[in-house]
# Entry
Amino acid sequence: MSSTTDKIKGAANEALGKAKQGLGDVTGNDKMKAEGAAQELKGKTQSTVGDAKDTVKSATDKL
# Structure
């Protein structure tokens, strides 16, 4: 997977996770809030992986 793909998927998962958490707050659904938090964390991790891939690519391009 490319760094751009990781970043896009990460951003999508973060947004969906936040939306689930908000919906869980409104409805009082603790399970949905927890799922949202997990999905948001997954998104942040994916974005971090994308950033790391960019860093490695930049470093290798300089060599």
About this structure: The mean pLDDT is 96. The longest helix spans residues 30-62. The CA atoms of residues 6 and 49 lie 7 Å apart.
